[in-house]
Amino acid sequence: MAIMGLPEEEYFSYGHRACAGCGAATALRLITKAAGRNSILVESTGCIEVVSTPYPETAWKLPWIHGAFENAASIASGIEAALKYSGENTKVIAIGGDGATYDIGFGHLSGAFERGHDFTYICYDNEAYMNTGIQRSGSTPYGAYTTTSPSGKKSIGKEEWKKDLVHILAAHGSPYVANASIGYATDAFKKLKTAIETEGPTFVNLFATCPTGWRSATEKSIEIAKLAVDTGVCPLYEIIDGKHKLGRPKDIDKLKPLEEYLKLQGRYRHLFRPEKNKETIEFMENRVRKNLENLLKYEECGL
Amino acid sequence: MEASHAISEAVKLAEPGVIAAYPITPQTHIVERISEYVANGETGSEYIRVESEFSAISACLGASATGVRSYTATASQGLALMFEILFIVSGMRLPVCMTLANRAMSAPISIWNDHQDSISARDVGWIQFYAENAQECYDLTLMQFKVSEDHRVLLPSMVCMDGFVLTHLYESMNTYAKEDVDEFLPAYKPLHAVLDPKQPMTQGPIGFPSEYMELRKSQVDATENSIEVIEEVFKEFSERFPVEINGSRPELYSMVEEYRTDDAEIIFVAMGSICGQIKVVVDKLREKGERVGLAKIVVYRPFPKEALKKALKNARRVAVLERAVSPGANPPVFDEIRSLFYDERKRPDIRDFIVGIGGRDVKLDHVEKMHEMTKKDRGKKVEWMF
User: Fold this and answer.
1) pTM (two decimals)
2) Which domain holds residue A285?
3) Phi, psi at residue A166, to the nearest 5°?
4) ipTM here
């Protein structure tokens, strides 16, 4: 994959052991391109840590450290402080999956943002604990099947809505938070770069397809990540110094039908079998729409 | 000086690049004093006021991996919260240094002293020092950095000081000049691994069964190797900074301090502040003609096997005073000392007294009573002294 306008250097090299069609691997290529050579990466335990560092091999061409599952933001805090002490001007970037970020590492993340460390936290968001075998997380969307939120006679899959982490971090007073998708790589790259170059604690939620966990075709990872945006499930937006700035989808009345997105993924198959669960899909569509309306209102009001 | 402030002062002298700590009783005086140093510009250390102990040890991990000296302080529940990362710091061979204000484990919640916290962390791969008084708190803190950062060691360490009994104790003590300490303890310069864009390295990879065991073994070997380094550092320190206040510390620091053990028939074994009381009792009993002494464990990990064997081998009876338990098994220090003599033809009779749990006072007459019970061989092999 080469994308026009993006740096050609690769710091996350080929030969890693990620699955075919892994959205997180694409995310990491974008992240490292945006980071550049003068960066230190901190990784949470998760798929990417496992597939990229089978000792004594490594896929990383940047200084990289992994400690534990929940503490990437705290390790990053320590690194940032150490660099400050030594007078080094190196970017610190913490990376975690959604389990590490939304759930188990949430306290660490909140603490680091409150303290105002100069670092960027990037969540590759594939909406479940994929490394352990597709268990639900605080980021798993409503209606999705996971191995711990299975669909059944009394269940439509996960019954809670996804945690709105981007706004929670914005509420910490962060100068820059954003929601991006690997489906729109140039946009994601710009957001990552802005986050990394902005002083203070910044955050990017980077939506990344997981064909293994989502039960989707490996060649459709980018298409699905685009559809998530075009159906309004994953709106692209930034909050810069507390002010919203929206990207796609531009027109709320021209959203693609949610079904187009859901149908490509086995994790939503139960919503179409034995017959279509119209009620649930409509509920989801309304909630997606409502969320977009709110974002638009924020932007209109200069919030 | 208060022993907590002695620790803060020693940390200031060592000037870690990064200090990360979370307040917990009875450790607070240490971090409050460090906060004052930072507020007054008396130290160049970066001080991170983290949101939990878990975060404190994680920040120290990150700082140490970036190549600067790092320090934290905690107690009981805080150490327990750090537990996962304690293994990771030692496994990554990062020389993070810590002060542990020993405090009982909840439940029931207790802010008072025993050793259950650090004893429960004996297998995490950290070097453990135990201080008897304010002077030793100060000295051991300066020495722990040097031991941990030695390239033959590269392991984290904790100096354990008894909560309240030491943390809130004021004692006369001797302090050292910055330039002398700088000479003894130069800046930390990692040669093994560092996060530096000029030479990218991967730290903390996944270890498959084909590699993990060798890496684990190398960590165990390093812990064994640290014995030599600890002895070297103790010797160098003792020579550079001779005793100025009599009785405030041994003339020559050692892993096991032998107090009047030469011809002793009964030898107490203990760690930490309680050794002060035992020494007083030993002196008193000696005046009465009793042949009694004390073997004070200064370093509990690595376990000073040879030093303890040497100290105890001629005793008829050994009484271990222990401030921790292992429910369902013998108290840990007791068992470890007994196993030292399993292969020996001549071995002392060894017994255990569980004392001072959850801050229960251990008075001089208690120690005398334990001596009498040991001498007359009364009571159980493992006796709770309420």
Assistant:
1) 0.97
2) 23-300
3) -60, -45
4) 0.96
